[in-house]
Amino acid sequence: AAARILQSGMRLPPLPTIRELVKLYKLQARKQLSQNFLMDERLTDKIVKSAGRIDARDIVLEVGPGPGGITRSILRRQPERLMLVEKDQRFTETLQLLKECARPLNIQVDMYYEDILRFNVEQHIPDTSQRIHLIGNLPFAISTRLLINWYEDLAARRGAFRRNDTCMTLTFQKEVAERICSPVGGEQRCRLSVMSQIWTEPILKFIIPGKAFVPKPQVDVGVVKVMPLKRPKTQLPFPLVERVVRHIFSMRQKYCHRGYGTLFPPEDREEVTEKLFQRAEVQDTLRSFELSVEQCLRLAEVYAEHVNAHPEVASYDYRAPKNPEIV
Ligand code: SAM
């Protein structure tokens, strides 16, 4: 028992278990909010341990605390401040209980009943003197969108990423977790792998079997630690990189010039594509999943140069109808 306390940090005052609280407050999981609760303290401790060192001065922002399983594990690590962003107000009582337990430990717990996709971090953490950890058993329905939004913040050094040591420890559906971390040539290599690896170093820490959650989701879950790179691999604007990578991967199994070519109008598509691949020194018969992050970025750089010389190309959309009907 002593080893357990040391491993997981501070002991909290005696509390009913999460399972008991869920029952007591009739907190049935809501599918529309992607609610799957983790009741096993060893697993919640393991997730928080994956975040690495949490110093006494640090801030932890937990996304979707729900009934508070991971929240308890975070409190045992005693950050200075814990911010909880939760959309569902039914958890007010269970989270309030944890806030009270945290008071004697001098941990400031702030609860925000908001949508994390709209949450303004800079407003709530105005200065950058403290390190931030983002932790969450994310709702599946928004996990990829949230991650991409955070990469955009990271590229622009804003929001939670004004410092370059903001670390994310997050859960995803196992396949999504594998995609985020997939290396060049990997079976799961896709747009999300490249976007992740341009600005961060993602590590798949461990897999949690679906049966550990209540209710049990259809799939297993992967815990990923995503660390911002000290030196991001590009200084190009995020929207431009996102556009190029999206086009490259739009035809994953075909030669990569096919998807990339759709960035340009059909009149001179072949010629421009060939020229830019040569300039980027990338072989155009590789498949997109065989391209390294560096190769994708070289293709983004030559695209940026091309757009500078031909600004009309920036807004070209190959799916837009050629002769739009006037309505
Ligand atoms: N952390 C709890 C656990 O591990 O047992 C609950 C995890 S559950 C998978 C996801 C949580 O995110 C739910 O509590 C849900 O209400 C919340 N949530 C869903 N969408 C959200 C959003 N857009 N913003 C903030 N919280 C959200």
Automatic annotation (TrEMBL):
EC supergroup of this enzyme: transferase
Q: What is this protein called?
A: rRNA adenine N(6)-methyltransferase
Q: Which GO terms describe its cellular component?
A: mitochondrial matrix
The Enzyme Commission number assigned here is: 2.1.1.-
Chain sites annotated for binding S-adenosyl-L-methionine:
N36, L38, G64, E86, D115, N137
Q: Which CDD domains match?
A: AdoMet_MTases
Major site of localization recorded for this protein: mitochondrion
Q: Where is the Ribosomal RNA adenine methylase transferase N-terminal domain?
A: 43-230
So what family is this one in? Belongs to the class I-like SAM-binding methyltransferase superfamily. rRNA adenine N(6)-methyltransferase family.
Q: Decide whether keyword Glycoprotein is in the record.
A: no
Q: Which UniProt keywords apply?
A: Methyltransferase, Mitochondrion, RNA-binding, rRNA processing, S-adenosyl-L-methionine, Transcription, Transcription regulation, Transferase, Transit peptide
Where does this protein reside within or beyond the cell?
A: Mitochondrion
Quick check: keyword Mitochondrion in the entry?
yes
The record ties this protein, via InterPro entries, to: KsgA/Erm, rRNA_Ade_diMease-like_C, rRNA_Ade_Mease_Trfase_CS, rRNA_Ade_methylase_Trfase_N, rRNA_adenine_dimethylase, SAM-dependent_MTases_sf
Q: Which Pfam families match?
A: RrnaAD
Q: Which organism is it from?
A: Drosophila kikkawai
What GO biological process term is on the record, naming one?
transcription initiation at mitochondrial promoter
For this chain, one GO molecular function annotation is: rRNA (adenine-N6,N6-)-dimethyltransferase activity
Q: Which gene encodes it?
A: mtTFB1
